[in-house]
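[recover] target loaded
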């Protein structure tokens, strides 16, 4: 009787384990699909922003605000903002500041802590109020942001950065950045 009970228990245990593994795999696939769908929506919004920049190479802050306001209802919570990052030689930073100030951002100042010949400057970011401290940030001042931006630029594909601390309001929150590259007309990755 003990031997039959032990064999039966092992058989039932194996069936239960197989069922638990199959259930876990189904839940994992559903979760991955759900996360991918959330990022796909954000990616589509950013691609729409790229189309705006293609139509209007230097959109005004108000035009960018209108664009983000139009796509924001389609984004899930957790998206802190949609921005535009401009890559330019460091010797052009003062001219960029002057253009942004003339366009309606009187306090726009570029962070000059980055390294390398080019700066990757956040020029537009909406919603404005909680994201204002990030305007003018040079993404070359940190390795995580720069690596993701460079990879997106080299591959021509959307790239998600590793986990970073994002400036939001008066503090920082954990998050990541999704980079979708834009190239000047006639250029390739």
């Amino acid at each position: 009787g003990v031997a039959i009970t032990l064999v039966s228990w092992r058989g039932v245990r194996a069936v239960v384990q197989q069922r638990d593994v199959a259930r876990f795999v189904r839940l994992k696939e559903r979760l991955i699909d759900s996360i991918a769908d959330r990022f796909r929506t954000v990616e589509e919004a950013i691609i729409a922003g790229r189309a705006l920049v293609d139509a209007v190479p230097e959109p005004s802050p108000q035009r960018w605000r209108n664009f983000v306001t139009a796509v924001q209802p389609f984004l899930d919570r957790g998206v802190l903002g949609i921005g535009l990052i401009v890559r330019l030689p460091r010797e052009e930073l003062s001219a960029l500041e002057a253009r942004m100030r003339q366009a309606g951002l009187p306090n726009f100042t570029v962070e000059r802590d980055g390294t390398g010949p080019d700066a990757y400057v956040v020029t537009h970011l909406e919603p404005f109020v909680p994201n204002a401290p990030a305007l003018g940030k040079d993404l070359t001042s940190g390795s995580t942001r720069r690596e993701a931006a460079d990879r997106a630029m080299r591959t021509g594909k959307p790239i998600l950065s590793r986990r970073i601390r994002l400036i939001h309001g008066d503090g920082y929150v954990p998050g990541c950045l999704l980079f979708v590259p834009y190239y000047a007309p006639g250029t390739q990755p």
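[recover] notes: Helices lie at 2-55, 61-71, 93-102, 128-131, 143-155.
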